[in-house]
């Protein structure tokens, strides 16, 4: 487990900033300024974890080979063990808890759209109940259920203005991760 | 020293040889005077060699200047005579390995940079979308106006035709009756209907 280099941190933040606004600063600097509860990013194997500094310090006592997971998984590489070279990675559904409180754009889906989304489908216009105003095309959004539970995240297919004119079967949000992955990818989600 | 000695000898010999005049002075002299040994004449000397003064531009003269000696480090030559890839050359006096950022300030600066970049991108996207929307609206308005114009033209033409018909009906009834008769003839036409 090690800290991120400058370049890696930049790549990670730019990915996170797709979904979040300015309040992403709170991830690094806790609002009350308590140093003991400072959260940090750590790279272990091919994964980046987000965890309290206290926990990260404890984790140093465990050999790398034996350490399976610590804290919240933020992202995993496409190709294992190559993050530092290709800098390509995808955010895991586990990062939802980190992104959701700071999300910039949101889409709420109706109850009848929840299941199709949780099974890995894209969000159709007919299923979207409401969405943030002034949302441009191809920007990250967090998908919520009608009772404000985050279900996953994705990328907008159309801008808000265009989506209004779309037919009901048209895709509004392309799915990237949904909470259904916890079950569908149970075997590989937390294993290296 | 030698001439004095020679002269004294000559004086003594001169006194002795006064009676006999026929003797060759040369022989006398040769016997009495100290002369260079006759063998010297026969010594072979090496032929004179012309000594040439060399030109200033001659390489020997030019070499005389003290030549600066460069050390290898000064020349900065590659170790092997080949191209070294950019990634391989390591800057001198720099820390080896990765540079980690773990302090809060460092992370914040990176985050601020990334945020600013992202916001700029979003802003430009929004601007573009807005412009496109404006263009689309303008086009739509233009198309609508054109449609209205067309419709009004068509209506005008229709009205004019209607008016013409009305006017014709008012002017001569005979023509209308003839047309009516033709209409009635048309009405009798066989019609096919499908059940």
TrEMBL record, chain A:
GO MF entries: RNA binding
BP terms from Gene Ontology: ribosome assembly
UniProt entry keywords in alphabetical sequence: Nucleus, Ribosome biogenesis, RNA-binding
GO cellular component, one term: nucleolus
Domain PUA, chain residue ranges per copy: 105-180
Subcellular location(s) of the protein: Nucleus, Nucleolus
Family annotation (SMART domains): PUA
Coarse class of the protein's main subcellular location: nucleus
Protein's job: Required for proper 27S pre-rRNA processing and 60S ribosome subunit assembly.
Subunit structure: Interacts with pre-ribosome complex.
Family note: Belongs to the NIP7 family.
The name this protein goes by in its record: 60S ribosome subunit biogenesis protein NIP7
UniProtKB/TrEMBL annotation, chain B:
Organism: Penicillium cataractarum
Name of the protein in its database record: 60S ribosomal subunit assembly/export protein loc1
Protein function: Required for efficient assembly and nuclear export of the 60S ribosomal subunit.
Start and end residues of each stretch annotated as Disordered: 1-75, 138-195
Places the protein is found: Nucleus, Nucleolus
The organism's taxonomic lineage, starting at the top: Eukaryota, Fungi, Dikarya, Ascomycota, Pezizomycotina
Gene Ontology biological process terms, A to Z: intracellular mRNA localization; mRNA transport; ribosomal large subunit biogenesis
Family: Belongs to the LOC1 family.
InterPro entries: Loc1 (IPR037650)
């Amino acid at each position: 487990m090690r800290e991120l280099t400058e370049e890696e941190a930049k790549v990670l933040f730019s990915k996170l900033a797709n979904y979040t606004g300015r309040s992403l600063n709170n991830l690094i600097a806790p609002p009350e300024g308590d140093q003991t509860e400072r959260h940090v990013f750590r790279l272990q194997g091919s994964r980046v974890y987000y965890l309290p500094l206290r926990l990260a310090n404890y984790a140093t006592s465990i050999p790398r080979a034996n350490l399976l997971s610590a804290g919240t998984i933020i992202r995993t590489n496409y190709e294992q063990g190559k993050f530092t070279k290709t800098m390509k990675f995808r955010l895991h559904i586990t990062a939802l808890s980190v992104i959701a409180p700071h999300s910039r754009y949101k889409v709420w889906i109706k109850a009848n759209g929840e299941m199709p989304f949780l099974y890995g489908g894209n969000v159709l216009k007919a299923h979207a109940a409401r969405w943030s105003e002034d949302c441009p095309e191809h920007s990250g959004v967090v998908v919520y259920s009608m009772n404000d539970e985050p279900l996953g995240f994705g990328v907008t297919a159309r801008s808000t203005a265009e989506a209004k004119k779309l037919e009901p079967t048209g895709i509004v949000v392309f799915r990237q991760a949904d909470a259904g992955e916890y079950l569908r990818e149970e075997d590989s989600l937390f294993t290296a | 020293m030698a001439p004095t000695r020679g002269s004294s000898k000559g004086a003594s010999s001169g006194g002795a040889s006064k009676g006999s005049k026929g003797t060759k002075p040369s022989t006398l002299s040769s016997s009495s005077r100290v002369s260079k040994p006759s063998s010297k004449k026969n010594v072979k000397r090496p032929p004179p060699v012309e000594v040439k003064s060399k030109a200033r531009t001659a390489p020997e003269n030019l070499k005389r200047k003290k030549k600066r000696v460069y050390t290898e480090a000064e020349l900065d030559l590659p170790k092997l005579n080949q191209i070294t890839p950019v990634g391989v050359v390591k800057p001198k006096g720099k820390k080896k390995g990765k540079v980690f950022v773990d302090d809060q300030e460092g992370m914040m600066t990176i985050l601020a940079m990334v945020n600013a970049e992202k916001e700029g991108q979003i802003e430009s996207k929004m601007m573009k979308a807005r412009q496109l929307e404006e263009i689309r609206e303008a086009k739509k308005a233009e198309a609508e106006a054109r449609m209205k114009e067309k419709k009004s033209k068509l209506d005008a033409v229709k009205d004019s035709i209607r008016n013409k018909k009305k006017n014709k009906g008012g002017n001569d009834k005979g023509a209308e009756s003839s047309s009516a008769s033709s209409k009635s003839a048309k009405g009798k036409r066989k019609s096919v209907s499908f059940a």
